[in-house]
Amino acid sequence: MKTKVTYNRIWGIAYPIILGSIAQNLINFTDTAFLGRVGEIALGAGAIGGLFYLAVIMLGFGFGTGSQIIIARRLGEGRLKDIGVVFVHTVTFLVLLAILVFAILRYGSVYILEFAINSPEIYNGSIDFLQIRAFGIFFAFVNMSFRAYYVGIAKTKVITYTTIVLAIVNIILDYLLIFGNMGMPEMGIRGAALASVIAEVSAMLYFVFYTLLVNKYKQYELFNFRTLSILTLRRIFKVSFPMMIQQFVSLSVWFVFFILVEKIGEMALAVSNIVRSVYVIIMIPIWGFSTATNTLVSYLIGMKNHDRVWSLISKVVLMSFVSVLVLASGLMLFPETVMEIYTNQPELIAMGVPALYIISGGALSMAIGFVIFNGVSGTGNTGTSLVMELVVLAIYIFYTYLVIIVFNGGLLWAWTAEMIYGTLLAVISVVYLKSGVWRKTNI
Predict the structure, then answer these.
(1) DSSP letter at 214?
(2) What is the pLDDT of residues 279-317, one digit of tens each?
(3) Environment class of 65 (CB within 10 Å of its CB; exposed 0-12, middle 13-18, buried 19+)
């Protein structure tokens, strides 16, 4: 990787991740669109079950992100063989963690969701989903290890290929298993869960074969299995643990958001699942550019080019904002058309259109805030980034609680919390980066 980071270099890292995210989110889009044809209950249960799964799986994603930061730093330092050491320890830890997460998803969810959900139908549907979806966690965590490796070395095209495989397998199996087409069993929401598990297996196999056949993995000693080092694992954990908590809390708060929305009613929950699906699609460029920011900031620091960090972040913010503006403009011009993709029920469409306008504003604020925040994480000072996120999330959930429970503000006011989140994240991240404290961080 070159020392100077240009727009082309940023785009070279970001666009495969963006394309991969498009494929990944085709799963969310397909599940939501198909379940929307099954009914409000299936749509609402898919939202709750899916978010519970995402919240727990974020523990692994956070560890992978921490590993990615260290791999990028080792690349910048020219310590290529140490990259394989980080990868082996990452895979080992995540496979062990998967056992715990599986138990939470398959068995703990029965008690946690019973306490949180009012509607018996949505509760039963969510449990049906998670009982099957839990098996995918082992393959998902291995995929996260490979993703951390490829993002860390800035070879991200394989992520696009892998998630295209993931999406194609999931879409085909959704069509077959949710409705029982072409002689397959009609499984409803359980079919959506099974399709996702098989898709994760397919993605993992692609990662393995691509790495063995295409990637020059030997220079990093990627599969040079060695005795695990407590010291190495502790070093990775020092960076990763705050990221694990941060990612888990972040998705858990969104899960709580949907639990609060469920108090408004089953229709509001169904609409919010559609809105969430659209929102996630608009967020796709943000995730790609944020990941590029994370990697490139760590790389620049590894090269001792601290003075170029803010210039890099400014470039990425501009690219992120323009990309999201294009998507949001299209959404605001054709909101009814977007809603009709997911549902043919006039009541859901009428309730959802105003919410789409609100999430457009929320996405624009996130295009700035989330990118700058990932610049903070890229410095390696993940403990500080955790504290920052916890403060912002506390304000986010308190605001949502006031709007829904205390003031009965309804669905539209609830979704304005996204704009508050993005704005606060931007402000607090800029203050930290301008302070220069991060220059002393060593990982």
Answers:
(1) T
(2) 888 888 888 888 788 878 887 887 777 778 888 899 999
(3) buried
